[in-house]
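Check this:
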Amino acid sequence: MNFKSLISNMINKRKNNFREKMKTQNKCPECRGHGFIIPSSMYITSSLECHACNSTGSYIDWEKGNNED
């Protein structure tokens, strides 16, 4: 196994573990269950609605939105 595939596997495992954690808590992985996203910026900005879960913060709604693609 080369270094590139080792790093890729590690990143995929971490991403899958995070999704499973959010699934058990029924939280959207994009906004972490808040329903909105606060962009990281050095300027003050307002929060944005989470379009991945339609601002519900629910994993089920996030999953529906991702399966439509």
Q: What stands out?
A: The chain has a mean pLDDT of 89. Strands lie at 36-37, 48-49.
